[in-house]
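Working notes for the structural subgroup meeting. M.R. asked for a predicted model of this chain before we commit to crystallization trials. I am recording the input and output together here so anyone reviewing the notebook later can reproduce the run.

Input as submitted:
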Amino acid sequence: MKIFRSAFAVFCDPRGMLRILLHGMIGAVVLFEISVGWAADKVLGIDVSHHNDIEDWQVLQAANISFVILKATDGLDYLDPDFTSRFSQLSQFGFVRGAYHFFETDDDPEQQADWFISNVQLVPGDLPPIVDIERVKGPVSGDVHKNFKIFLSRLEAHYGARPVIYTGPTFWDHVMKQHFPRYPLWIAQYDVEAPLVPDGWKAWTFWQHTNDFAVPGLQDPLDASYFNGSKDDLKKLLPSHSPSP
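Returned structure, recorded in token form:
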């Protein structure tokens, strides 16, 4: 789940430049305190796949992680090899769980939805189903917008909740435009003070703000996201009933 960072955004980010200046003039300790203070009131989560080596979920508890989103499926027949076991483990540690499907524009949308449904059993307290759309892969049979709507509607009918859409602002504004504003938005944009909200939405629900989030106890950095609200607000987003059989 990667939206590549922009070198221009890194250079022009005032907060990033301020950190560099403070590090040079005052020292790393002050820089660290400023960074933590800025994020102290944020509801923070991560998204991972089998590429991320996590043996001990307790290190995430210590890092104040509130929600964990796992890659579940991709296209018509791919299942992340760690999804099933990890999704079960997360419920034991008190995290809000989520699962996402990577939407392939060249695959049948109903079959993709059914593949996700057959592998992801959500329960009350889990995040709504999530779909990642960030590229067009050909050949596309039919209209991309129509096919994506078929996929979303199938998930919504089954789970009884509107799916969350993960995307990047450039891709969405060039390809999808204003077609799906009623669905919660998970926007990916790094090294900016605030993300660009694509056409059709008024605000973001989740913001993947970095792919370089360091967690003490883990060797590699992770993708991290903020929720746009409090922990109580996050609970309101969670479906309170079980999906249809």
